Structures are given as C-alpha cells and as structure tokens.
Amino acid sequence: MSKKILKSAYQLLEDSIIYFEGKPIGTVAATGFKGLAAANYEECFIRDFVPSAMVFLADGRFDIVRNFLETVVTLRTRERVVAGHEIQPGVMPASFRVETQIDGKDTIIADFGERAIGRVAPVDSMMWWIILLYVYTNVTGDKELAKRKEFQAAMTQILHLCLKDSFEVSPALLVPDACSMIDRRLGIYGHPLEIQALFFGILNLAPQLLDDSDPTVKAVKETAYTRTQTLRNYVRLFYWLDLQRLNEIHRYRTEEFGANSVNVLNIYPESIPDWLPDWLPLDSGYLVGNVGASRMDFRYFGLGNLLAIIFNLATDTQAHAIMKLHEIRWPDLVGSMPMKICYPAMEGLEWQVRTGSDPKNVPWSYQNAGNWPALLWYFVAASLKSGRGDLAERAYQTAVDKLHHDNWPEYYDGRSGRLIGRRSNFKQVWSATSLIMARKLLDKPDLLSKLPG
Ligand code: GLC
C-alpha cells in the first residue's frame, strides 16, 4: 500500500518541476492549478522547495538543486527599490516563476514581497538558501559551487545584514510579522522562534562555507561565531519553558531595575495564559514562540521547536523534553494529521486584534493552529535525532493513507486536524515531498548526518 502512495507522491513531485530554458530549476507550490487558493501557488517558493530538494539530493538528482541555488543567487541582484528605502541586498525572494515571452524567450519573475498578499518580505528565504547550499555541498561533495564569487558574496551580505547593529539589546534577530512560513499576520513580530532557529543555523553554517582569505570576510565570520554563542545561551534560557520555569515565572517579582534583577525582561506573571498551567505535563517542556520586553508569547510553534532540535539549538535534555511533550499531548499537537503549526489557536478579541480579523486564519484553521503535513519530515528528523523513532513512525503512519486519500491537502482544520482545510489547496507539493522524505529518514536514519546539526 505504502509503495503505491509513495509512487503517487513522486508523480506529484515530477509534475511540479518548472523549467528555465529547458533546465529544471525548481518546483511549484501546488499543481492543482484550477482551484488554487491564490495565484502565487503556481510559483516556486524557496521554503517549499526545501523538502523537494531533500528528496532530489537523496535520490542523486543533484542538477535541479544546483540549478535552483544558482537561479536564486542571480535573482538576488534584481530586488526592487521601494521609494525611500532599498530592499536590503541579501534578501532573497519568497517565490519566483518562469514566464515565456511571445518571442519564446524565458524570463524569471521573482517576488520579494512587492506582489505578495499583504506585501510581506520573507526573512527565512535567504536562510533556507544557505542551509540548502550546505546540505547540497555535504551530500554531493561539490565544494566548488559555494566557492563561486557570487555565492561567497551572497553569504557575506546575508551575514552582514543579519549581524548589523540595530536598536536591539537582545542577541535574537528582530523581524516583522509574517516573514516566514507563517506569512500572514499572527502576532509573531519581534523575535519569533522559527527565525531564531534558522538564524542560529546560518550563523553556524555560512562560516563553514566561506573562504576567509579576505579580511572583511574573516571579521564577519568571527562576529558570527560570537553571536552563535550568545544566541544559543539566550534561547536556551529565555525561551525555555517547563513546569519548574513556569513556577518561577508565576512567582516572579517585577519592576526590578539594575544589574542584579532576576526577571530581566520584566515578564508579568499575570500574562501566563489560563490554558497553560494544567496543560504543561511534568518532565516535558518546549521553547516558547517569542520573547521580548514584558512579553512571552506562550504559544507552542511546531517548526521552531523542531528546527531547534535538528540544529542543536536546544540542549539534549530540552530536545527529549520537547519530544516527551509531543508524546503526552499527542491529540493536541499531532492529532489526526501531523502536525500543528502552533498551539493553541487565538480566539475572540485577541484574534481580531492580532490577525486583523483574517478570515483565513480563524481559530483552529490554517496558520492559526491548523495541522500542516509539510511539517511531518521535520518532526520525523527531530524525533529520530532525539532517539524517538517510535514517535516518528507513529506520525508517519497517521499521515500516510489519509494524505493520499485526501489528494495531498495543504492543511487541515479543527482542534485535532480532522477536517480538510476550508481553503486548502489539493496537490500541495510539500505535503507529498514531506511524506517521501519522512519515509526515507525512517528507512535510512543515517541520512540525518547530511543535515546541519
Ligand atoms: C502559504 C504558507 C507558506 C508557503 C506558501 C506556499 O502562504 O503559509 O509558508 O510557503 O503557502 O505553499
């Protein structure tokens, strides 16, 4: 049975490939073109291409991944200028498409946020690009690609941009709402965990790919190294939440001024949400969604926690506790379809204010606590890495038949993800590639060694 399903997933991947001048350069987000939720699903999204690339690399189809990396690096120089400020060099597009002109010539049109719904520029694209370049180098042994001038320049610019001085005191990266996988307003402006995990990833990886004969590159590598240490310590301390920490926060003193304060971010115990104390099991924990001045976003976010495990941002003890949380709170976090993008949903006034009354992000739907099959392979990788192959297999078995039967939906609705998302696409490519990659990792766990971490 599973063989037939994987064959159908592979067929979807094959149908999703886009070509530029005859060369395969990427995969569209969804192929069910007629009923697509938005026109840009016909484009190749950088983040959606990641699981496609993993499958291609595992299968020895290196050319398409190399072409993709080359294409995206050229697009970088084409970013649009907004009157009064330039979109920063180094920022890579959220997505791109190939258009064939009347004279038969292909052109690539990229979206740096100036066409995207809500006009949001992605921060994660440039980070995923570096991570993919690292995995490509690691799998193929081809060190030449990363050494090319334009690749070195792109990585240096990205590091410069992320390490630039700002008004910040915190070592975490300050970003706007909607700049990553969650690309609509959801109250995640500030220091969202997913971006911190990706940031930590590139701070580790880019220096390994950068040649330091140039003194400015050497200097940026050193800054990156120092920032890796401070960011790691900061996330492990300030984002971590378990019952012991919750007790500390519950009894925190506030308004402490000066060097000896304990509650340095001035978190008010009154901000602990009602659902949390009874929900958080003993011997488990997670990294919270966002941290800032008098702000702890106590929501759980799936991708950030899984990437923190995969990239070694979380300690081993924390990684085990996070997996334990999934085991104990399986119906909430995994449910009928692995797995929740965040938990719990925002409702009522909070939903109105923080999403702008977004009807696509109503409670327990889409990005507001919907279930996303695209997260499956990250869950499998994180579980295997923490020695929880049992959870990985269980998640895979939960997804496999249903995903195929339902025609590869993009997301599911409801508290436990039993309903196909109201505005979900079908034939969503990363729902299929995530399943293929999950199976590959389960069958050959040593593939994990090719990933960063
Ligand atoms: C949605 C998702 C985003 C994804 C895109 C294409 O906008 O939120 O993460 O990249 O669809 O699938």
Description:
With 453 residues, the protein is α+β, with helices and mostly antiparallel strands. Among the domains are: 16-162, no CATH class; 329-453, no CATH class. The protein is built from 17 helices and 13 strands. Strands 8-9-10-11 form a four-stranded antiparallel β-sheet. A three-stranded antiparallel β-sheet has the order 3-6-7. Strands 1-2 form a two-stranded antiparallel ribbon. Strand 6 (95-100) and strand 7 (106-111) form a beta hairpin. Helix 2 (46-58) runs parallel beside helix 17, helix 3 (62-75) packs antiparallel against helix 4 and helix 7 packs antiparallel against helix 8. The chain binds alpha-D-glucopyranose.
Rg result: 21 Å
By helix and strand content, what is the structural category? Answer: alpha+beta
In DSSP terms, counting alpha (H) and pi (I) runs of 4 or more, how many helices?
17
Bound molecules: alpha-D-glucopyranose
Beta-strand residue fraction:
5-15%
Compute the number of strand runs.
Answer: 13
